[in-house]
Design goal:
Layout (H helix, E strand, L loop, with lengths): L1 H26 L3 E7 L2 E6 L2 E8 L2 E4 L5 H15 L3 E5 L5 H4 L10 E5 H10 L8 E3 L2 E6 L2 E6 L11 E4 L4 E4 L20 H10 L5 E4 L7 H23 L4 H7 L11 H19 L4
Parallel strand pairs: 4-5, 5-6, 6-7, 11-12
Antiparallel strand pairs: 1-2, 2-3, 3-4, 8-9, 9-10, 10-11
Helix pairs in contact: 5-6, 6-8, 7-8
C-alpha cells in the first residue's frame, strides 16, 4: 500500500507540474517580428500589431501597445539592429494601442494627431504625451526614408491616422479596417458616415500592402470591401430605423450574407447593428 501511495503522489506531482507549464505557456504573450518589405517590419503582441522602419540614422516605431510589449520591442530592435528609436508615432489615443509610449520617450520624439494629444492628456492615457502634433498631413524623414502621416477624418475615434510608407508601398491602418473580419463589437468611439468617408480617402492613397492593427496583411481591395460592408450596414440600419423597427427587430432581420464568411460574423454582427443603431438614433430626427 505505501508503494502505491508513493506512486500516486508522484503521478499527482507530475500532473500538477504539467498543468503549471501549460498555464504558464498560455499566459505568456505571443510576440514576433516579421519583415513586411525592405526595412519595414511588423511587430506582433498577441492580437495587436504595429510596424517599425529601420533607417541608417535610427528607427521609427509605431503603436507601443503596452509597456511590457514596448520594452520587449525596444530590446529586440537594439539586439537585431543596434539602432536607437528616434520617433514613436501613435495611430490614435486608445490605450490598447497607445499605452507604453514612455518606454521610448528617453530617445524618441512622440508624434500624433493634435486631437490624439488632447485625448491622451484629458483621459490620462498610460503613455507618453506627444511632442509633435499635426492636423491633416505630415511627413517624417529619417535616414533618407519617409513615412507619410495622414488624417482621413473622423472614423474609429476622431484622431486616428494612417501611416503610408511609400518606398515600401505599405499602409499601416489600425482599427479603421481589417482583412475579412467584422469591425470590432459595438463600434465604440466611432463616427458615421465619417468612417465611410475616411475609407474612401484611404482608397486613393498609393499603396500595395495593407498592414492592419489586427489580423493578417491585405491589400487595397480589403479597404474597399470594408467600405462596402459599412455602406450596406448603414443603409440597412437607417432604413429599419425609418420604418420604426426596434433594435431587437433589426438584429433579427439584418443579415448581410455577403459577409457571412468574415471572422466574428455571428458574434459581432448583432453588436455592429447595435452600435450603428445608437449612432443613427443620435443623428436623425424622425417624424
Amino acid at each position: 500500500m505505501p508503494k502505491i501511495l508513493n506512486l500516486l503522489a508522484i503521478a499527482l506531482v507530475l500532473v500538477l507540474q504539467a498543468s503549471a507549464q501549460i498555464a504558464l505557456a498560455q499566459s505568456e504573450p505571443k510576440r514576433a517580428i516579421t519583415q513586411i518589405a525592405g526595412d519595414l517590419y511588423r511587430f506582433q503582441n498577441n492580437f495587436h500589431f504595429s510596424v517599425f522602419l529601420v533607417t541608417p540614422e535610427g528607427v521609427i516605431v509605431t503603436d507601443p501597445i503596452n509597456a511590457e510589449a514596448a520594452a520587449w520591442l525596444e530590446a529586440e530592435i537594439d539586439k537585431r539592429f543596434g539602432a536607437p528609436v528616434k520617433y514613436l508615432v501613435l495611430s490614435h489615443d486608445h490605450a490598447d494601442h497607445a499605452a507604453g509610449g514612455e518606454v521610448f520617450a528617453d530617445t524618441a520624439l512622440v508624434v500624433a494627431h493634435e486631437r490624439a494629444k488632447a485625448a491622451i492628456v484629458g483621459e490620462g492615457r498610460p503613455t507618453a504625451v506627444p511632442d509633435i502634433t499635426f492636423s491633416d498631413r505630415m511627413t517624417l524623414e529619417l535616414g533618407g526614408k519617409q513615412v507619410e502621416l495622414i488624417y482621413p477624418g473622423p472614423s474609429h475615434s476622431d484622431n486616428l491616422i494612417v501611416m503610408n510608407f511609400p518606398a515600401e508601398r505599405v499602409l499601416f491602418a489600425v482599427d479603421i479596417v481589417t482583412v475579412k473580419r467584422m469591425p470590432y463589437k459595438d463600434l465604440s468611439d466611432s463616427y458615421f458616415p465619417g468612417w465611410i468617408d475616411a475609407l474612401k480617402r484611404i482608397e486613393v492613397i498609393d499603396f500595395d500592402i495593407l498592414a492592419p492593427g489586427h489580423g493578417v496583411l491585405g491589400d487595397k481591395s480589403d479597404v474597399t470591401a470594408h467600405r462596402h460592408y459599412f455602406e450596406a450596414l448603414h443603409a440597412e440600419v437607417l432604413a429599419a430605423a425609418r420604418a420604426g423597427k426596434s433594435l431587437e427587430e433589426m438584429q433579427a432581420s439584418i443579415r448581410l450574407d455577403d459577409y457571412k464568411d468574415w471572422g466574428q460574423y455571428d458574434a459581432w454582427l448583432p453588436l455592429n447593428i447595435e452600435g450603428l443603431y445608437k449612432r443613427i438614433s443620435l443623428q436623425r430626427r424622425g417624424n
